[in-house]
From TrEMBL:
Protein name (Swiss-Prot/TrEMBL): RNase adapter RapZ
Binding annotation for GTP: 59-62
Keywords: ATP-binding, GTP-binding, Nucleotide-binding
Keyword ATP-binding: yes
Keyword Heme: no
Species the sequence originates in: Bariatricus massiliensis
Name of a matching Pfam family: RapZ-like_N
Residue stretches making up the RapZ-like N-terminal domain: 1-157
């Protein structure tokens, strides 16, 4: 029996995750009252059961006395029952945005501010995050990326490092990304914008990529950046960091930054490490939109 407890912050994607696990062959139960969990675990221990994979969704809505869950988990440890905890995390800005888009009230906010409810929830379920086997930060994850991460853990059974890396290109004239952990400026490289035939293209096009990377300084920068990031990643993992956003910026976020972001993404992917990895080009289309106005 593989028994997975899916928990985390309200609004971080628990319902979506349970649907994906159901598609993977898990028998899923959502929002079971905490006191009934002991009865469920007793049933799971019975030999000859037909259910071999179960996912149980629990969050703050499962009962105001969620602290009781810690004692239940301790009892399961004493009985030798194996279980895994998947904790879904998201930053406050992402959670607030999701609540506003769905026009739902946070379960702990009452009639007050969502931010207050989120802070209280973090305090109440902090013990679950500490006990978690897997922590997925869904702040920037697309649905397909969430499914990919779940496949790594629950289908491919890969060792998971609880770190999701976003390589993000941007344009300085549109502002530095507020959630970037590391920011690198590649405006020292020759700008394809001033080459007529390259101006309308982007760093996703081969011609622009070749123009940027054929510069010796671009290759030196990429090599040094890759070495530094590969050094930092295991240290971030040890320190418990779950989301790493690497921002690479140029003037407009269309040519140089896109090229280097793509190159860094490919270099990190080639390592074969089991952390999550995505790339995003925040401002690649903004130049055309601005000119159209």
């Amino acid at each position: 029996m593989r028994f997975v407890i899916v928990t985390g912050m309200s609004g971080a994607g628990k319902s979506t995750t349970l649907k994906m696990l159901e598609d993977m062959g898990y028998f899923c139960v959502d929002n079971m009252p905490i006191p009934l969990m002991s009865k469920l675990t007793e049933l799971l221990l019975l030999p000859g059961g037909e259910i071999t994979k179960m996912a149980l969704g629990l969050d703050i809505r499962s009962g105001q006395n969620i602290e009781e869950l810690e004692q239940i988990l301790n009892n399961m440890d004493e009985q030798g029952q194996e279980y895994e905890i998947l904790f879904l995390e998201a930053n406050d800005a992402a959670l607030v945005k999701r609540y506003k888009e769905t026009r739902r009230n946070h379960p702990l906010a009452g009639g007050g501010r969502v931010e207050k409810g989120i802070a209280e929830e973090r305090r109440k379920i902090g013990f679950l995050k500490k006990r978690a086997d897997y922590i997925l930060d869904t702040s920037r994850l697309l649905t397909r990326e969430l499914k990919s991460e779940l496949n790594k853990i629950f289908i491919e059974n890969k060792e998971y490092k609880n770190l999701y890396i976003t390589v993000l290109s941007f344009g300085f004239k549109y502002g530095i990304p507020s959630d970037a952990d590391l920011v690198f400026d590649v405006r020292f490289l020759p700008n394809p914008y001033y080459i007529d035939e390259l101006r309308s293209q982007s760093g996703n096009d081969k011609e622009v990529r070749d123009y940027v990377m054929n510069n010796e300084n671009a290759q030196i920068f990429l090599d040094k950046l890759t070495d530094m990031v590969e050094f930092l990643i295991p240290n971030y993992v040890v320190e418990g960091k779950h989301q790493l956003v690497i921002g690479i910026g140029c003037t407009g976020g269309k040519h140089r930054s896109v090229t280097l972001a793509n190159e860094l993404y490919e270099a990190l992917r080639a390592t074969g490490e089991t952390y999550g990895l995505q790339k995003e080009h925040r401002d690649i289309e903004k130049d055309a939109v601005t000119k159209a106005k």
